[in-house]
Automatic annotation (TrEMBL):
Entry-linked SUPFAM superfamilies: lambda repressor-like DNA-binding domains
Pfam families the UniProt entry points to: HTH_31
GO molecular function, one term: DNA binding
Source species, domain of life: Bacteria
Span of domain HTH cro/C1-type: 11-65
Name of the protein: HTH cro/C1-type domain-containing protein
Species this protein is from: Paracoccus haematequi
InterPro entries assigned to the protein according to its UniProt record, in alphabetical order: Cro/C1-type_HTH, Lambda_DNA-bd_dom_sf
Length: 124
């Protein structure tokens, strides 16, 4: 019998079934890899906001990961925004650097790429 808490057992089951790396699942949940590892190994119980983010990343309810934490919904997730906007370093006035880290439908991703290619300053 395992000495791991239920949340770690459930999280490991989801990790194994996902087919993704631990680093990828941590990124999807907005977690540092070390924190995700502590949850997987049962060293630390994820707080409510992190549990909600994990549930969202795996497409399950929070209680499917940690049945002892009740009343938590995915709306409680503490996720970083999937984009970052900075002042452009090399393009000159009127340009911003936009970084997007999100899973998008292919048609939307294609539109963003087309727009970025059309709007990007011409390189010589």
């Amino acid at each position: 019998m395992s000495d791991l808490p239920d949340y770690a057992i459930n999280l490991r089951r989801l990790q194994d079934a996902s087919g993704r790396t631990q680093a990828e699942n941590a990124r999807r949940a907005g977690l540092e890899r070390d924190a995700y590892g502590r949850y997987l190994h049962g060293k630390t119980r994820p707080p409510a906001a992190k549990l909600a983010a994990l549930a969202l990343a795996f497409g399950v309810a929070p209680e499917d990961i940690d049945p002892e934490q009740t009343g938590i919904t995915i709306d409680d997730a503490d996720l970083p925004p999937p984009f970052e906007i900075q002042e452009a370093r090399t393009s000159g006035p009127g340009y911003l650097r936009v970084k997007i880290d999100a899973d998008l439908p292919a048609d939307i991703a294609g539109q963003i790429v087309e727009l970025a290619a059309f709007s990007a300053p011409k390189r010589r």
